[in-house]
Amino acid sequence: MKYCGVIVNNESIALDKLFTYRIPENLRGFVEIGQHIKVPFGKGNKLKDAFVISMFDECENTEKLKEISDICAREPVLSDKNIRLINLMRKRYLCTYLEGIKLFLPRGLLKGKREKIKLVLYSNNELHGKYKEEKYASIYNTVKENVAKYSRNELSKEFDYSLSSINTLVKHGFLEIKEQRVNRVDERTFPHLPKKNLTMEQLIAIEEIMTSKRNEFLLHGVTGSGKTEIYMTLVEKMLEKGKQSIILVPEIALTPQMVERFKGRFGKDITVYHSKLSEGEKFDEWHRVKQGKVKIAIGARSALFLPFKELGLIVVDEEHESTYKSDSDPKYLATEIALIKGNIENCKVVLGSATPNIETYYKFKRNFWKIISIEKRVDGAEMPEIELIDMRQELENNNKSFLSAKLYEEINERLEKKEQIIIFLNRRGFSTFISCRKCGYVFKCSNCDISLTYHQKSGMLHCHYCGYKESSTKICPECGSNYVKYFGLGTEKIQDEMEKLFPKARILRMDHDTTRNKDAYENIYSDFKNKKADILIGTQMIAKGLDFPDVTLVGIIAADLTLNLPDFRSNERTYQLITQVSGRAGRGAKEGKVILQTYSPDNYAILYALNYDYHGFLEEELKIRELMNYPPFGRVMMINIYSENENMLIKGVHEFSHKLKAYYGGKYNILGPCPSHISKIKNQFRWQIMIKGNIEYADAFKIKNMVYDMSKSTYNKIKVGLDMNPYNTL
Ligand SMILES: Nc1ncnc2c1ncn2[C@@H]1O[C@H](COP(=O)(O)OP(=O)(O)OP(=O)(O)O)[C@@H](O)[C@H]1O
Ligand SMILES: [Zn+2]
Ligand SMILES: [Zn+2]
Fold first, then answer.
1. Which of 325, 338, 613, 651 gets the most CB atoms within 10 Å of its CB?
2. Residue nearest to ligand 1 atom 12, measured at CA
3. DSSP state at residue 718
4. SS3 of 88-134
5. Which protein residue has the closest C-alpha to ligand 1 atom 29?
6. How many angstroms separate the alpha carbon of residue 379 from the centre of ligand 1?
7. 89: domain CATH number?
8. In a shared domain, residues 218 and 351
9. How far is the CA of 216 from the centre of ligand 1 (A)?
10. Which residues on adjacent β-strands are paired with residue 433?
11. Helices marked H in 566-635 — which ranges?
């Protein structure tokens, strides 16, 4: 082929298109789709990294075309299938090509040693990138036989050699210093875990997945139903076929447990891929996968993009978790990508959860895809009883503590019996909604049925969906009391208080503050697992997936905090959270119990959760979603608009919204503009516009261009961001 279309490594939106280059004679036959190459770009013809996306023999206006300069490595870094997926993402999530490409490549690939670029036919297959090399020493005996090999560190540690004596040894040929490439890979091993005898339900699920012609499965199994054992057997079956598997976990806090189970069962050839890895480690792991040395990947959503060649299985564990939605561009949803990838790569996709995402469940029903239900825990363990405590009543009884009398009593009882306890605090609710502590009344917007947010700056209550405002008050409009308060209670404070209340208890805490350190998750996990603590206090991190057989009591401090976030998913989140946290109790031989403290004991999400009634909740929630035209019945597109200049922003955003409404107001429901829930971040003021309806991709694309044109017309003084199907509307 004589020409190729390339994407240049440049972030600018204006460059989000294919540029055509001529392939010089001496490189013909060597260029391939998906290769990492160098091209001269712009006025100065500076060499830039680029990626080959298409190739062709016919082309118009060829006189002006520049030639590509070099191929960085013969082996393509992107496959055809990757490029197909990137194209789909560009349409679905309104991202640029480059943003899509970067998902598939470790950052280190574009870094590392820059060899002098010259026009050569690379015969080597080595990929460009940030490798790590370390000096090591080979030791020879008097007849020049190699007897041992040491790294520099080992050498000085073992023999206490000084630098000059090392040099002397080198001179006489007893020691040779060479550079060797090393892998920054965590090769830790774990004690072997034998296979379990599978239950009938597990066997049926596996059979169904392996024999079905279809690729997509929703595994709806109650907490503690042994879903992981199903995943492991599926992985094993894939290994037998010579295929690889990706296991996604929603939260880094869950990786130690997953890794322990998988490495314990399958040994090596596993990569653990998540955000806490350094750039170099990521590059090495990616490289290991690329070379076909890895059979199983366990990791965060980014693990979806690892370059496996024969992918057999993708598991998305706890598929309902909002962490599967990316919060930076492309703002993709990993469960969605998993399903699309399953289609492109023809591999099995298993979405597992005790509380499937409403949209996922609806999608499976609508498409007649397979939903596999497991309604019983393994070994006949019972679901723990959930006891609801009305915290308004506690206040009546003059208990001002965050612990109800009942929870206090239950904790003491478990401590005496030497059983373990989990205390869960809903961090996401740690915000600024307003409610009455006497009657539980929550201030809501009359147009949207979404709780109002207190804006400190204006002193007003805002609806950040439609822009409605009212002045704040200290008097409750429902009961007339003056107990109106906004919430705020952190895990640290809870730990302090609990240490005072239960001075003999050993207490651990897992939250953002205690897990800054890379190994912290693992340490806290194994300390609690090995019963080095009695109580584990935590946030969302400990809410799902964790399997501690000796936990018999779970206390939920304020179940309803998520209810009050201005988000149409808040009831769903509450239902899921309660079910998931409750699911941590009674997983072993001993019966479990849950104390659920709330100010909204009548809320339907809470009531359905009390009875583990997923289907009841689903039905009720779908009715509301349909009525309000929220997903899965319509799409939501969020336009976020920011600027340091507030006046300019307000003016710009209103002008833009007028234009938008003139074009699309008849077709879609356009809400706003209004200030974002968090109205200023890092000196940027933030506004938003929400579009609801059956938004067509073609329209979304046009709207995207309108939005970027608007930004361009202000010389980027107004910045914009787009989010299809937003999970975070703050
Ligand atoms: N067939 C089996 N026989 C005995 N024990 C089993 C079997 N399958 C699973 N288990 C054990 O049951 C416990 C719960 O399993 P697992 O953690 O996989 O549940 P889960 O369905 O993923 O729950 P959650 O939704 O809460 O994450 C684990 O300790 C697991 O080792
Ligand atoms: Zn009140
Ligand atoms: Zn509103």
1. 338
2. 226
3. E
4. HHHHHHCCCHHHHHHHHCCHHHHCCCCCCCCCCCCCCCCCCCCCEEE
5. 547
6. 9
7. 3.40.1440.60
8. yes
9. 22
10. 453
11. 570-582, 604-610, 614-628
CA separation for the pair 326, 576 (Å, rounded): 20
For residue range 67-77, list pLDDT tens digits in order.
Answer: 999 898 888 99
> Residue 117 and residue 71: Cα distance in Å, rounded?
9
Assess whether 537 and 601 both reside in one domain: yes
Asked if residue 188 belongs to a domain, the reply is no
In sequence order, what E strands does 456-496 have? 460-462, 469-471, 484-486
Among protein residues, the one with the nearest Cα to ligand 1's atom 9 is 226
Give the three-state DSSP class for 221: strand
Residue 294 within any structural domain of the chain: yes
- The residue that leads in pLDDT, 245 or 1, is 245
Q: Do 126 and 103 lie in a common domain?
A: no
Distance from the alpha carbon of residue 208 to the mean position of ligand 1, in angstroms: 19
- What whole-number distance in Å separates Cα of residue 556 and Cα of residue 576? 13
Q: Is the CB of 9 under 6 A from ligand 1?
A: no
Q: 487-506: buried (b, 16+ CB within 10 Å) or exposed (e) per residue?
A: bebebeebbeebeeebeebe
Cβ of residue 381 lying under 6 Å from some atom of ligand 1 = no
Q: State whether the beta carbon of 320 lies less than 6 angstroms from ligand 1.
A: no
Q: Is 466 annotated as a binding residue?
A: yes
Give a three-class secondary structure readout of 320-365.
CCHHHECCCCCCCEHHHHHHHHHHHHCCEEEEEECCCCHHHHHHHH
Please check whether residues 211 and 319 belong to one and the same domain: yes
Nearest ligand to the CA atom of 446 = 3
How does pLDDT run across 586-616, given as a tens digit for each residue? 988 899 999 999 988 999 999 999 999 999 9
> Can you give the CATH number for the domain in which 245 is found?
3.40.50.300
Last residue of a domain, one of 56, 90, 110: 110
Output the CA 475–ligand 2 centroid distance in Å. 8
Looking at residue 198, the DSSP 8-state letter turns out to be: P
Q: Is residue 629 part of a domain?
A: no
Q: What is the ipTM of this complex?
A: 0.94
Sequence-distant (≥ 6) Cβ neighbours of residue 416 within 8 angstroms:
none
The response to whether residue 673 sits with its C-beta less than 6 Å from ligand 1 reads no
Name the strands in the sheet holding 19-22, side by side, starting at the edge strand that comes first in the sequence.
19-22, 3-8, 46-56, 36-41, 70-71
User: What spacing in Å lies between the alpha carbon of 442 and ligand 2's midpoint?
Assistant: 8
CB of 209 shorter than 6 A to ligand 1: no
Q: Is the CB of 562 under 6 A from ligand 1?
A: no
CATH number of the domain at 678, please.
3.30.70.600
Diameter over CA atoms, the chain: 96
Q: Is 225 in the pocket of ligand 1 (CB under 6 A)?
A: yes
Closest residue CA from atom 8 of ligand 1: 226
The pair of structure tokens assigned to 339 is: 């399903």
* Cβ-contact 499, 507 below 8 angstroms: yes
- 153 shares a domain with 295: no
Q: Is residue 187 part of a domain?
A: no
pLDDT of residue 123: 41
The answer, yes or no, to whether any atom of ligand 1 lies below 6 A from the CB of 198, is yes
Find the domain containing 167 and state its range.
Answer: 117-181
Residue 66 DSSP label: P
Q: Are residues 371 and 406 in the same domain?
A: no
**In Å, how far are 75, 276, 341, 374, 534 from 618, measured between CA atoms?**
48, 35, 27, 17, 36
Q: Which ligand is nearest to the CA of 465?
A: 3
Provide the domain count of the chain.
Answer: 6
Nearest CA-CA partner of 598 in 643, 563, 546: 563
- Distance from Cα 482 to the centre of ligand 2, integer Å: 8
Model pLDDT, residue 487:
56
517-576, pLDDT tens digit by residue? 778 888 999 999 999 999 999 988 888 888 999 999 999 988 776 666 667 898 999 999
